[in-house]
């Protein structure tokens, strides 16, 4: 346990100082008021906050950090609290909730940039970009409540990574409050800036352990003017991988999403998601949900898709396909993919892994990891789905139908070891999207290169020598 976690108190003096600066409405100390900030939606990591403070501007964040440094009290930055690994859950810390910092400071369609405060909801940023005739392409199921600060602190991915990259790839500049209360102003909107270390990348993906992100300059893109969506039935993950290569060759940059579903995922969605419908009359072992977009209104994407699929049939890399002919049909196909997590929860307990391997290894991984899990528990139901085009899978295992959920969950360490050892053998990552937080700290120590881990520790010690920022998380 770090020094910061041992402090565990907040003095009246500190509380009064914070109330004086922020106003009583923005310093919460009642348990009932703090409840939404001390646990995540899945309630896996019980937390405890000393107070919740809600700054309205960067100067107030800097003031809070300075005061906490003087009083040696730890802090947890928190955005929309949609994280899934316990990263934003306080453990005897003050929660700095960024939601009031929700201004769009600037939008420059010519430079294709938007400058936003950390507490802006992702969907609000997408809408502001759209109103200016531009696209902000970061898109994930939590976009109605997650915030840009949280997206950057976790280097969020989502459904458009294949075409536009992760959150990290969408940032030009950052403003960050550091552990001594100073403000790093690197809010540059430049695409070229070779003036030494690119410090923003230290804070992107740092899960609130190095500083509090208060604003960012984000990249915008031309708005898509055409879209085509197809669901494809295949015999196996290997066939889906061959199809991915085929589509990538034929459709190049128009390929925006390439998602994978096994039959088990389709079955649980059809059982539990209201209105979900199988568009095929036959059942297939594997499915790919593919989306193309283009900013060019003259390009007929459906025609290009039909040609590419016809070639795929000829090359024997596809068994069946439906192409959406309306946006309602496109949404219905996406619902089959987006409903998997909810449907799996309704199906019973599940043990989850958020992994990545090189795209070329993904089919081998699914095969080997499934075999390893079936050796541990032959009645396991494997639900490996996700962003195959990014090499990122949610490799989940659903409990056997007649097994007690707690007995099944007791097997978590054995499944983790089998799955993560295979990930390591294939030069993959044990955390492709959600981060490390509290959930994967032990696994990080096991699998991260020791030299890289030592460098991370030394960066943490340099930037946050008192260990005030989000103690007990990530490292
Ligand atoms: C339904 C659902 C779908 C999801 N889908 C995806 C997905 O497709 N891809 C993906 O990558 N993730 C996904 N996630 C998880 C993802 O990490 C979050 O949804 C999102 O990026 C976190 O943003 P948030 O504002 O909620 O952050 P929080 O949960 O509040 O915080 C997450 C971490 O960031 C830190 N943090 C928050 N704000 C700041 C700040 N301003 N400065 C410094 N540190 C900060 C916190 O301390 C914590 O460690 C999903 C989650 C849900 C619930």
Topology:
Blueprint: H1 3-7, H2 12-22, E1 27-28, H3 31-38, E2 48-53, H4 58-71, E3 75-78, E4 91-97, E5 104-108, E6 113-117, H5 122-131, E7 134-135, H6 148-153, H7 161-164, E8 171-177, E9 183-186, H8 200-203, E10 212-219, E11 221-222, E12 226-234, H9 237-251, E13 255-262, H10 263-272, E14 286-294, H11 301-314, E15 320-323, H12 327-338, H13 340-347, E16 350-351, E17 354-356, H14 362-376, E18 381-387, E19 392-398, H15 405-409, H16 412-425, H17 441-447, H18 450-463
Parallel strand pairs: 2-4, 3-4
Antiparallel strand pairs: 1-2, 5-6, 6-10, 7-11, 8-9, 8-10, 12-14, 12-15, 13-14, 16-19, 17-19, 18-19
The chain binds flavin-adenine dinucleotide (FAD).
Flavin-adenine dinucleotide binds next to strand 3, helix 6 and strand 10.
Describe the structure.
- It contains 18 helices and 19 strands.
- The strands form 5 sheets. It has a 5-stranded antiparallel sheet with strand order 5-6-10-8-9.
- The termini are close together.
- The chain folds into 4 domains: 3-100 and 459-463, Uridine Diphospho-n-acetylenolpyruvylglucosamine Reductase, domain 2; 104-222, Uridine Diphospho-n-acetylenolpyruvylglucosamine Reductase, domain 3 (2-Layer Sandwich), CATH 3.30.465.10; 226-341, Alpha-Beta Plaits; 348-435, Alpha-Beta Plaits.
- It has helices at 3-7, 12-22, 31-38, 58-71, 122-131, 148-153, 161-164, 200-203, 237-251, 263-272, 301-314, 327-338, 340-347, 362-376, 405-409, 412-425, 441-447, 450-463, and strands at 27-28, 48-53, 75-78, 91-97, 104-108, 113-117, 134-135, 171-177, 183-186, 212-219, 221-222, 226-234, 255-262, 286-294, 320-323, 350-351, 354-356, 381-387, 392-398.
- It has 475 residues and is of the alpha+beta class.
- The chain is globular and about 70 Å long.
- Bound molecules: flavin-adenine dinucleotide (FAD).
- Flavin-adenine dinucleotide (FAD) is lined by residues 76-84, 87-88, 98, 118, 140-142, 146-147, 149-151, 153-154, 156-158, 207-208, 212-213, 433-434, 437, 470, 473.
